[in-house]
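Example record

One chain of 78 residues, shown exactly as stored in the release files.
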Amino acid sequence: MEFRTNDFYSACVLRTMNFSLLRLEKQGTKYFDFVFSDNDGVADQLLKRYWDRDGVKLEARDLIETINEMKSRLYQSS
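Predicted structure tokens for this chain:
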């Protein structure tokens, strides 16, 4: 099963939670969809809990490293 989002920071949260990024799909001239492997179908629920501050925590350093990694991938794919 796959989960996709076009929200950069949601994609960073999922990647920090060790979801596998399968691919980036270009949408138009400026936007991308981030496509993740979500075999258990829990990505949407985890994101909701994260943004609602409902018990899902991430290490700040890990999230910052992921943001930098994802920016690099976007620039490589442009």
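Notes: The two ends are 26 Å apart (CA to CA).
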